[in-house]
Amino acid sequence: PRSVSPAADPAVISPQDPTLLIGSSLVATCTVSPDFPLRAEDLYWTLNGRRLPAASYAALGPSTLSVALARLNGSRQQSGDNLVCHSRDGGILAGSCLYVGLPPEKPVNITCWSKNMKDLTCKWAPGTEGETFLHTNYTLKYKRRWYGQDNTCQEYHTAGTYSCHIPKDLALFTPYEIWVEASNRLGVAVSDVVMLDILDVVTTDPPSDVHVSRVGDLEDQLSVRWSSPPALKDFLFQAKYQIQYRVEDSSEWKVRGHGGGTARGGRGRGRCHLLPRQVVDDVGNQTSCRLAGLRPGTVYFVQVRCNPFSIYGSKKAGIWSDWSNPTAASTPRSERVAGGCDPKGGEQNTTLRRELKQFFGWVKKHAYGCSNLGIKLYDQWRVWLQKSHKTRNQVGKEP
Length: 399
Hints:
This protein is mainly β.
């Protein structure tokens, strides 16, 4: 028997690892090395593990077998479809990756924002169709409009699949040109250039130190107070605020706007554009607003967000921050007794409110600063409490 060199490849596939457009046809050949005693009739083909029909084969010589593939679909995986030549016993002789897809489309809808004027994050869409069936690289590039060289963003996927973050070394009062390049095995596509000034796309952290409290014994009102963005304390800007709130057993948020005036060093003053019965308090360096027309004896969750605009006279509308963590408070219980109320129901209501007060006292004392955790615990505890009362009532009833 013929000796086989350990380094010899059993067979060679041609073309090796081709890139093709969707709908293309391909004829591939598998040629067995002379060091292996295999003939064309000893071979067969698979594509992604599925055996291809013998009708698509043709023997092109004693040890060469071809396969014809027509109207190829996009690759099932971005690493390429596996076209493999096998020996009769199933052994793998050679393999090739087929990259079948489309050239990239021009990226669109580039939007950018700067957190506290310290960085820049941009996101985009991959095009009208998006799917190329091939691994596609996206590169965000930027440069000052009148100076210098192209720069390439390095931190991708920071705000989603198609996004990039530029952490530092950005200039103010200077327009930037920003664009995205998409490339894959079949080509390159470049987006339109977006022009922006950092001052025009500023957003900030959510308002800090949000406090919600009762307004004396007013059963339909709550007072909301917060601080203006501390990161912008050294900049001249205007601020708008929005407050959203919801009842404890509802997932629907109601939004109220709060217009602001010029602010520097954390000063933000303005009026709440709310219901006629609602009142605005001016608290110096803090902003505040009263929510009126609320339900007595009800727990409300409140959030605030900020829009810094007209920074150093910028003409752009500004970008809203994320919402602050929810803060909870309850309106005082009404002293009026509704006619026809079940006394037992009233007693149960009093007990429930006492337990609510105890719960929020515990949260304030033991879980301060963990508002998300506290509210999640409260929601779970509230459901359990309601079930407990319901079970107790059913068991206590006489048939």
